[in-house]
Every structure is written in C-alpha cells, then in structure tokens.
Write a structure and sequence with these properties.
Elements (H helix, E strand, L loop, with lengths): L1 H4 L8 H13 L3 H13 L4 H21 L5 H25 L6 E6 L7 H12 L3 E4 L6 H11 L3 E5 L8 H11 L7 E5 L5 H7 L3 E2 L3 H21 L1
Parallel strand pairs: 1-2, 1-3, 3-4, 4-5
Length: 233
C-alpha cells in the first residue's frame, strides 16, 4: 500500500479528511487522528463538530463492525485509543464552549472482581459516542459508586462483573440506592459475561447490556427518553 504513505492530510478537503479519519480510526492510527483533529480545528470547525462528525462518526462504524463480529476486542481497543488521542485535543475546548452533553456515566467493576477488559471497552465506546466517563476501576464497594454519582452529578451508573460470585453485589448497590431514595435519579446499566437480561431485571437494573455496542445504544435510548420526559414535564 505505497499510496497510503503519500496521503498528506492537510491537502485533503474537509469531506475527504473526515473519510480518511474514519479509515484511520478503524485502523487505530492515533497520530493521524490527532493531526487530522488539529487540521479541522485550524479550518474553523467547532470542537463539537469534530467530535460528532469525525470521531463519533468513525467510532460508530467501529462499534457496528464489533457488534457484527467483523472487528474484535484488540482492534476496537486500538480504535478507541486513537479516538482518545483526538479527544485529548478536543476535551479542553469542549469544556470552554459548553458543548451539549450526551450525559455522564460512572462505571466500575464491582467489589471482589478485578476484571476490567469488558468495562474498559464499554468506557471507551461510550466516550466514543460522546459521553463523559468517570472510570472507578475494579473492586468497587457500594460507597465508591454512590460517592462518585453524587460528586460527578452523573446520569448513568454502569456496573460490571465477570464472576458468578460477584454478580450479586450489583443488587447490593441497587438496594442501597433504593434505601437512600436515589435509585430513580440514575440510569443503571449492568454487564459482564455471566449476566443475562433476566438477572438484570431481577436485581432492578434499567438494562443488561451484553456488549459495549449494546451499552452505547441503550445509554443513548435512556438518555433521550429522560430528556423527553423532562421536556414534557
């Protein structure tokens, strides 16, 4: 692919550049994504436009191909890492311009569980979809979740477990939220290999998400519904 080396990003027009960014995100090319992000900003694009049209647009393709089994976890992690490169440039600018928020999610693996690949993938894909993510890491007791939700004024709580022995801890968190009267303030999404929809319903989560692509779609749906209710109310 010798012609690939000859592409000069700055010589592409906007449309070609965004198409090239889709390809570069797909291939996990972080430096190229950062360079292209800078070029679009220099050309007068709003940070929010770059985020939604170029980065989120590209990650949507990655997410769909991941869902359909065309891409696999390592490739998605590379793409998400490239996206992070672009985000590192946009984040401070987005904060200044007060861009519309998709929503904010607190995510972490539950107490007793130290698995994080699935959680990291969800966090990256959610960020790729324009959500703000607060990642609490692994082995989180209920206090960690509740403190973070309040501190961050989050919209969504995401909990992950990979062991059948740690799954029931999700119910502990949700029950504690109910006791404190705050359960309905948040959208609660759960995921992890041993879970299923029935389990999600039984513990009182809003939804069970079988993979990162589903998590993104589900979060978008719930946030949109919530906005509509607030507008109606």
């Amino acid at each position: 692919m010798s012609d690939e080396d000859d592409i000069v990003l700055s010589e592409l027009d906007d449309e070609e550049l965004v198409a090239q960014m889709f390809d570069d995100l797909y291939d996990g090319l972080k430096d190229e994504i950062m360079e292209a992000t800078e070029i679009l900003l220099e050309r007068g694009w709003q940070p929010y436009e770059v985020l939604t049209k170029a980065l989120v647009g590209g990650m949507t393709i990655v997410g769909n191909d991941f869902r359909d089994g065309i891409l696999f976890v390592p490739e998605v992690l590379l793409a998400a890492n490239a996206m992070k490169g672009g985000m590192s440039i946009l984040k401070p600018l987005l904060a200044e311009t007060g861009a519309p928020r998709m929503g904010k999610m607190v995510i972490g693996t539950v107490k007793g569980d130290i698995h994080d690949i699935g959680k990291n993938l969800v966090a990256m894909m959610m960020e790729g979809a324009g959500f703000e993510i607060v990642d609490l890491g692994i082995n989180n007791p209920v206090e960690n979740y509740l403190e973070a939700l309040e501190r961050e004024q989050a919209d969504i709580l995401g909990m992950s477990a990979l062991l059948t022995t740690t799954m029931p801890y999700m119910k502990v968190v949700i029950d504690t939220m109910k006791e404190k009267g705050i359960r309905d303030d948040y959208i609660v999404l759960v995921g992890g290999a041993p879970l299923n929809e029935e389990f999600g319903r039984a513990i009182g989560a809003d939804a069970y998400c079988r993979d990162a692509a589903v998590a993104v779609e589900t979060a978008k749906d719930f946030v949109a519904r919530r906005h509509n209710q607030m507008a109606a109310g």
